[in-house]
Amino acid sequence: MESHTHPLTRSRWGRALLGMLGLAAFVLLWKYAQAAGWAAAGTIPDPFKLPQALADEWTSERLMPAVLSSLVHYAWGLAIGTFLGFLVGTLAASSSLLDALHALLARILRPIPPLAWVVFAIAWFKVSHAGAAFVIAIGVFWVNYFATYSAVRNVDSRFYELARAFGQNGHLRQAFQVTLPGAATGIFSGIRTGIGQAWMTLIAAELLGVPGMGQEMNSAAGVGAYEVVVVYMLIISLVYTLSDTLFGLIEKRVLTWRPS
Question: Which domains does the chain have, with CATH numbers?
Answer without folding.
Answer: 52-254 (1.10.3720.10)
